[in-house]
Fold this sequence. Notes:
Helix content: 40-55%
Number of helices: 6
Structural class: mainly alpha
Number of strands: 0
Strand content: under 5%
Largest sheet: none
Amino acid sequence: MPKNTGKHPGGRPTKYNDQTIPKTQFYLDNFEALGDKIPSIAGLADHLEVTRETVHDWLLQEEKAEFSYNVKRILQRQEKVLANKGLDGEFNSSITKLLLTKHGYSDKVEGTLGGPGGAPIPIQYIIQPVRPAQIESGEKEQEDGDEEEA
Length: 150
């Protein structure tokens, strides 16, 4: 059985190197000059010449905390650009709305019908006799003690 020398556990060598952080910061500052309307993980991955999955893998690695911080800044900038350009009408509202859902935005309205504290709404039924002549004339029945005005 071959002895593990500790050089590499196998597989393709990582493309993460000392240029990854500066390239990530460059992408954040220059995404539009690089041809992107909004900063994105896909745009960053393309700039770094890796896949989106690789970027997501790097995000999970504790030793890449600075990279993770920069990606969070990219997503924050994405949210800001979407909100601003969506409000200005520069971006299609449907696409903007769809992309902002990835940042926790929603146009869903939640409503429940209930009484105080979520209790059922009490319903009170009042049954009053009505004479056929009152129905035809639209009169209301007088309650006991009410006198008819002259």
